[in-house]
Amino acid sequence: MRLYLSQDAAAKALGAEATAAAIRAAAPGVDLVRTGARGMVWLEPLLEVEAPEGRLAFGPVTAAEVPDLFAEGVPGASHPRCLGPTEALPWMKRQTRLTFARCGVIDPLDLAAYEAHGGLAGLRRALGMTPEAICAEVTESGLRGRGGAGFPTGIKWNTVRQTHADRKYIVCNADEGDSGTFADRMLMEGDPFCLIEGMAIAGRAVGADRGFVYLRSEYPDAIRVMQVAVDRARAAGLLGPSLLGSGQAFEIEIRVGAGAYVCGEETSLLNSLEGKRPVVRAKPPLPALQGLFGRPTVVNNVISLASVPVILAGGATFYAGFGLGRSRGTVPLQIAGNVKFGGLFEAAFGLSLFEIIDDIGGGTASGRPVKAVQVGGPLGAYFPRDLFDTPFGYEEFAGQEGLIGHAGIVVFDDTVDMLAQARFAMEFCAVESCGKCTPCRIGSVRGVEVVDRIARGEPGQIALLRDLCETMKFGSLCALGGFTPYPVLSALTHFPEDFDRARRAA
């Protein structure tokens, strides 16, 4: 009998290790496979039992509940705690799982299981293609950077491919620092070989023989899993001087950052990789032309690179068949905050916030009305309910002065103070600024002061706040200072009642 239990960081935080120990004590003869997460955080620790009709879900299963659960042997479909087949649960059934197809399904460090579930098909195909053809395939798929910028991945790769240099690099930006985001962590902990395969394909496409995964120190489980996966991939010939015997060389090194939010910005990350202070570089030159150690460099985030094996395996047309407009493929929605059903939900672009928050997320955990949703991390705009019909797509959100970013979605009920949220945005920028440019370094500090004056009802401050936001938006070197105005201005525009004292005074 085979059982499956997640060892994802979220599952561990909810007691999965104690549950695993209790299962081994109650049913010592079973084969307990530790997997990544399915994404249903409210059901963790989620136990799955292999059965003829498929895997059966039981959850949440605490350590204290294990003895009763296994009192009559391994539980089956007739057990009152059984939720039914995992794949038939509403949360799973509605998804389009492409990038996360194996997460929660296999042992993340079992390379044979990875290949049995479709892994390496994309790399094998890529090794038989020319670099130009690989770049064209990725371009035609419509894949855009899932880290926030939304820049077409194939165009970036082709720029690096066409740039002549003695060496080129692939850098995976795994410094996932946005509040309410966890897709990168889940992918690395639950399907690390997918990221390795994507980086190897990128190396083949642009002529790079070395890659780096830049991981944040706050992710110890992801660091451990990725390092073991790289070692096993190297031992199996998936990395090294000849990928799968093709003669194409590619190597990966895991690097751990010290925990600076600004290292999520690609040029700051590159400085950190080089052992320098992580400050933002002026552009041009772009990293695609002069990146790591001055060489042409592809910098993509985890989900961008992990989506590439699906594209190469199924073809550009298959992947581009999902989504809407210029937002093609799927996106891992990370639903968090004050929400009943929080977790990771992979779907094609195009869902509305009504569907995501009310239907999939089940509304607020508090049971109170939803007041605002912040999409795109701490630098994302706040959307009120009257904008919830906006389709989830890059251009669609930009048209509402918002951004998708890393697709983190944080829900707030009607008790939230949006003036306080505006202050938090400015304070966050002040704390996390690298200090390189004046609009970000000084503007954010002045922003906190102005919001405090608004809170005290001082006249004339709202106009000053808007002017300051314009300066930061167009004068900052990178997105940290440039996007901080999004939450501030959206709070001011859509929730004026929270600024009423200042409006009356002004």
Characterise the protein shown here.
By secondary structure, the chain is α/β, with parallel strands linked by helices. It has 4 domains: 2-93, Glutaredoxin (3-Layer(aba) Sandwich), CATH 3.40.30; 111-320, NADH-ubiquinone oxidoreductase 51kDa subunit (Rossmann fold, 3-Layer(aba) Sandwich), CATH 3.40.50; 323-413, Ubiquitin-like (UB roll) (Roll), CATH 3.10.20; 418-505, NADH-ubiquinone oxidoreductase 51kDa subunit, iron-sulphur binding domain (de novo design (two linked rop proteins)). The chain is 40% helix and 15% strand. The chain contains 23 helices and 16 strands. The protein has helices at residues 9-13, 16-26, 66-69, 90-93, 111-116, 121-127, 131-141, 153-162, 183-190, 192-206, 220-235, 266-273, 302-314, 316-320, 353-360, 394-398, 418-432, 438-441, 443-455, 461-475, 479-483, 485-494, 500-505, and strands at 2-6, 31-35, 47-49, 56-58, 82-85, 169-174, 210-216, 251-257, 297-301, 323-324, 327-328, 330-337, 343-348, 370-375, 382-383, 408-413. The strands form 4 sheets. The chain has a 5-stranded mixed β-sheet, covered by helices on one side. A 5-stranded mixed β-sheet has the order 13-12-16-14-15. A hairpin with a 6-residue loop joins strand 3 and strand 4 (56-58). Helix 7 (131-141) packs across helix 10 (192-206) and helix 17 packs antiparallel against helix 22. The protein is globular.
